[in-house]
Design brief:
The chain is α/β, with parallel strands linked by helices. A five-stranded parallel sheet has the order 2-1-3-4-5, with helices on both faces. It is globular, with a radius of gyration of 13 Å.
Length: 126
């Protein structure tokens, strides 16, 4: 069985590594992307099952990436998890996300949430 693809769009390399490991343990293949413009380029040709999205990114910010995902019919089944240290910003984007996490996000917290999300929506990942 193929593992579903997860994009980790985060400019902090330490957080990206932690998020990638947590999502890998939850059953995903994780791909780390550190710039918003590079994320949009990857999204133009790839359909991940989940996007873990930071809001403050170089190139293109996270809210623009979220808007592009939500308006692209190819990405209609892609789940968005926003990870932000900015509580006010996270609240304004909550309607566009499937899940909103406030940083710091712990390894176990993310792994367990991703596992639960995957087990509750298994057909979304076929």
């Amino acid at each position: 069985m193929n593992r579903p693809l997860a994009f980790i769009i985060e400019d902090d390399p330490n957080l990206s590594e932690i998020f990638a490991e947590a999502l890998t343990e939850a059953g995903f293949t994780a791909e780390m992307i550190s710039r918003g413009d590079k994320a949009l380029a990857r999204l133009a040709g790839t359909v991940p099952k989940i996007v873990l999205l930071d809001m403050h990114l170089p190139g293109v910010n996270g809210d623009e990436i979220s808007r592009r995902i939500r308006t692209d019919p190819r990405l209609a089944r892609t789940r968005i998890v926003i990870a932000s240290a900015d509580d006010a910003l996270a609240q304004t984007l909550e309607a566009d996300a499937d899940l909103t996490l406030l940083k710091p996000v712990g390894f176990i917290q993310l792994r367990d949430l991703a596992r639960r999300f995957f087990s509750e929506h298994p057909h979304a990942y076929c």
